[in-house]
Amino acid sequence: MEAHLQHLLNAVVLGGTYALLGIGLTLIFGIMRVVNFTHGELYTFGAYMAYMLAGMMGLNFFMSLAMAALLGMALGALIEFTLLRPLKGADIDTTMLVMIGAGIAMQAGEQLVWGGVAKSVPSPFPTEPVVLGSVSVGMNRLFVLGVALLLLGGFYLLINRTKLGVAMRATFQDPDTAALMGVNRGLMYTLTFALGSGLAATAGALLGPIFVVTPTMGDLVALKAFAIVILGGLGNIPGATIGGFVLALAEEFGAGYLSSGYRDAMGFILIIAVLIVRPQGLFAMKERIG
Question: 65-124: per-residue pLDDT in tens?
């Protein structure tokens, strides 16, 4: 039972950041119909910004995390404005090729600037774990969970309780009608890509102090983000949230009871099984045709 609880706690901590990644990716796809192949590199960008601000410049750790998230949003807005906006009306194949190229260029740039040696983001938290009954967890991981849950709650309020959220949901449901009602679609697209990019950068900044930071750290993360989106249903934000935790549970229990070498494989095996049974994903929304 103690092992069960420990694995469950670890999965919940990891699932929070997975949910942030999945929401950012599904938000961009749902509103813009763009498959964001730079998502993993934006995650890496956030981790490197946290390293630069907290490790190299010596800024306050918590301020560094907030600034890394803002810089991720700014980079996302720049990508949308310079790469995606000129491709408005282009077919999806062209957009995908451009985004794949952008992701490759970003990784090459990170390799050039930071080199291939792994970096470590300094953390203000003690190394001694917090003991909660029969389980234990590091203070840094509890902080990551707390911030992730706070961001998930804030994102829910943004989407469902603000005028901006109404405009984004309207653009998601019917872009043409939303434009007729006065919604600035260009602005919505920029804000959407910036917000999704900021969530990816935040996840990278949060996990940077727990893992090492390398130029290729976003490769597997990007695949997992796509897996989360597919698991939850394309364009389904609540589904992406649940999918993030489901993937983390599959990885954690698979690593704990089979082998740590199968950690990453377990999640994708789950995705394959889900797609065989329910190709549209577990929580895909119904669409009106005609």
Answer: 999 999 999 999 999 999 999 998 888 889 999 999 999 999 999 999 999 899 999 999
Q: In the structure encoding, which two tokens stand for residue 139, read together?
A: 């203070």
Residue 137 pairs with which residues in a beta bridge?
130
> Among 153, 204, 165, which residue's Cα sits nearest to residue 39?
204
pLDDT, mean of residues 200-218: 94
The answer to whether 218 touches 53, Cβ cutoff 8 Å, is: no
CB 198 within 8 A of CB 72: yes
- Token match 């992406």: residue? 240
Of residues 290 and 268, more confidence is placed in 268
Rounded Cα distance, 15 and 20, in Å = 9
DSSP letters, 103-137, are: HHHHHHHHHHHH-SS-B-----S-SSPEEETTEEE
